[in-house]
């Protein structure tokens, strides 16, 4: 049986000890959850395992043998694969070509043997019982299926270890079921599975063991069936959270209508009407693909619309670009942080101020001290884990990047704030903080729209809930 052992692994980044003497062991045929707050060091440990980063101390043993991978390619060759939430594929190539990327079977005269390529790929597709074909083009698949292809890519290399880093963040419930079926198959074949997720439900559903990490340090390892959600939360956060929603301090003074949307239509939105009040938290429930994000993108000026009307603060508005929306007082925190939300190579400070440049400038001139002050305020208020405001946002842990985005929205002082899946990739402790932040914004009489696929979140947070289906509002 394969085994993987971390021994005293440490990793230091400028200003942070990301990992501090981490040791634990994982065996084949088991799914091991790695649990910890945002910035605890989970992704860093995986990146050391797959040769992306080099440890500053300690070692790891694969089947008792000490390993040091200098690059992900070396790690892959030794049987270690990581599946990230962001998919890494070539869109215009077929599924088969993606699966066999670095190992395309070549025939006589160095011609690609497509027949063999497709047949081998189709075998795996059938084994996993997936509903697409080896010859389908990657960019024609759904996000979930693209991710399955990533798993197939790892699987065909006959891996010893597959690590999943928040794999379900963009998947619907049905898609999660499919992914879990596949993960179980991998487990049955004796593969060691490391599984990182902030969703407790998933931890209890598929993992056999849990390893808790806090501030880069090992806290505990136990059998999943021997622990409870409450105990795990306490171990990772260091305190008892109780019922998050009961403890929120809410806005009780909901004001008049701040925004009204009337019969909004575009190719994805089929006649949507609703009102949002000052100081109200309005939840949008529905399945992935129900048209919630599409409606908000139209309002925010990302996508166009041809019919209907939007009235903001008594004025009819039609934004052709998010910049116009932000200037008029609407801001939106996008669901897809990586694609639309952040400027990864710019500093936290730049990212916090980007929507509110006029507040930190005089005339055309940026005022650096104001900029710095606004950034420091955001870092403090949102408890963003960073040594300083000059760190590149791309170097923050996922959850801390999300907090920077919220800090940015707040700095712009909007009248209407749209939060699309605001707690995606956020740990339980920080989730509670973000819910309280949403309530605090409402207290400032901002109208807050929350889109979420987590029902408890919508139910616990909203003053009123609209349900969407097929581009229409189907219930209130
Ligand atoms: N490339 C890097 N350069 C500098 N600091 C980094 C880098 N990568 C990670 N860090 C820091 O190391 C710490 C651990 O980050 P890591 O991404 O491993 O956390 P995580 O447990 O995966 O959190 P999350 O749940 O938010 O994804 C954080 O303080 C982070 O800012
Ligand atoms: Mg991470």
Straight-line distance between termini: 54 Å
> Helical segment tally?
16
Largest β sheet strand count, sense and barrel closure: 6 strands, mixed
- Overall geometry comes to globular
Q: Name the poorly predicted regions.
A: none
Q: Note the quaternary state here.
A: single chain
* Share of residues in strands: 25-35%
Q: Which class of secondary structure composition applies to the elements? A: alpha/beta
Task: Round the Cα radius of gyration to an integer and report it.
Answer: 24 Å
How many β-strands, per DSSP?
22
> Which ligands does the model contain, each kind named once?
adenosine-5'-triphosphate, magnesium ion
The largest beta-sheet arranges its strands as 6-7-8-3-9-10
Mean pLDDT: 89
Helix content: 25-40%
Describe this structure in words.
The radius of gyration is 24 Å and the shape is globular. The strands form 5 sheets. The chain has a 6-stranded mixed β-sheet, sandwiched between helices. Strands 16-19-20-13-21-22 form a 6-stranded mixed β-sheet, with helices on both faces. Helix content is about 35%, strand content about 25%. The model has no long low-confidence stretch (mean pLDDT about 90). Helix 5 packs parallel to helix 6 and helix 13 crosses helix 14. It has about 475 residues and is of the alpha/beta class. A hairpin with a 2-residue loop joins strand 17 and strand 18.
Structure in a nutshell:
Helix content is 33%, strand content 26%.
Q: Which secondary structure elements does this structure contain, and how are they paired or packed?
A:
Elements (H helix, E strand, L loop, with lengths): L2 E11 L2 E12 L3 E5 L6 H8 L7 E6 L2 E3 L4 H6 L2 E5 L10 H5 L14 H14 L15 H13 L5 E5 L7 H16 L3 E5 L3 H7 L2 E6 L2 E7 L5 H9 L19 E10 L2 E9 L3 E5 L6 H8 L7 E6 L2 E3 L4 H7 L1 E4 L3 H5 L6 H6 L7 E2 L2 E2 L1 H14 L16 H14 L4 E5 L7 H16 L3 E5 L3 H7 L2 E6 L2 E4 L1
Parallel strand pairs: 3-8, 3-9, 6-7, 7-8, 13-20, 13-21, 16-19, 19-20
Antiparallel strand pairs: 1-2, 1-4, 4-5, 9-10, 11-12, 11-14, 14-15, 17-18, 21-22
The structure holds adenosine-5'-triphosphate (ATP) and magnesium ion.
Adenosine-5'-triphosphate binds next to strand 2, helix 1 and helix 14.
